[in-house]
Amino acid sequence: MAGKPTDHMKNISDILVLFVDDESDTINGLKRFFRTAPFRTEFAGSGAEAMQMIERNPADILVTDVLMPGMSGIELAKRAKSRQPGMLCMLVTGSNNMDEIVRSSKTANIFNYLSKPVDPVSFRQNIEHAVSLCCSA
Questions:
Q1: From the CA atom positions of the chain, what is the Rg in Å?
Q2: Please, what sign has the CA dihedral across residues 89, 30, 116, 45?
Q3: In a domain, 62, yes or no
Q4: pLDDT tens-digit map of 12-69
Q5: Residue 114, H or E segment
Q6: How much of the chain exceeds pLDDT 90, in percent?
Q7: Total domains, the chain
Q8: What is the pTM of this model?
Q9: Residue 65 sits in which domain range?
Q10: Cβ(126)–Cβ(88) under 8 Å?
């Protein structure tokens, strides 16, 4: 795992986590799952939509599906990190070939990789860990 938190620490209520997935059912599930989260959340259905959101309101953490039409999650992570180098990026994939995903995303400086189907407890812990890295003690 690589990556580092943003240069200045924030309160948890100021942290913005952007979730990106082309599957509307997944986005709706994430909205329900994180509706009471102490951090801010935004949701995008494509890499292009996510980049527009990042341009308007930079995210602290990007959690994106790898395989999406148009812009892949790997390409999205690379573009997002070029705009905001301190952003933590997490890739979620249903691919059985994690080694290939890791190899192809090396230049994106990915913080963490998660396999689908995700275990809800583990998924929440991974997100909370990334959030804690962006927060003040």
A1: 14
A2: negative
A3: yes
A4: 999 999 999 999 999 999 999 999 999 999 999 999 999 999 999 999 999 999 999 9
A5: strand 112-115
A6: 71
A7: 1
A8: 0.88
A9: 12-134
A10: no
